[in-house]
Amino acid sequence: MTQSRAKGKRGELEASKEWSRVMGGACRRGQQFAGGNDSPDLVHDFAGIHLEVKRTERGNPYLWLKQAIADCQGRVPVILHRRSNQPWIVVVRLDDVPRFVLEAQAGPQAQTLGGGKVPGHDPGAGVSPAP
Known about the structure:
Elements: H1 3-23, E1 27-29, E2 42-44, E3 49-54, H2 61-71, E4 76-81, E5 89-91, H3 97-106
Parallel strand pairs: 3-4
Antiparallel strand pairs: 1-2, 4-5
């Protein structure tokens, strides 16, 4: 595995843990079970949200969004991005924010994630109630 692919894999694993920690619900790498290059970066149980992970020092968020839009199949395209020594950030088109909020408020739908539910997962654990 190339160094770049290994970093991408580590980024996807880290992003999946952070998504679950912040949003609740189950989340795992898309290629973990399916194994294909056309698998989404992250598979999770927020039915209306498509997540694309970018763990890189540089890049073009507009190109990332273009990729996410092409792959989203009608869901809200969302980019999770992190540089070294920085927190994860979310990139969403402004026009998609209202729908993203609605999908996030709907919460996890507890669907199976390809290879089954994420073992040992407690939906909503660590997520504070909305104010």
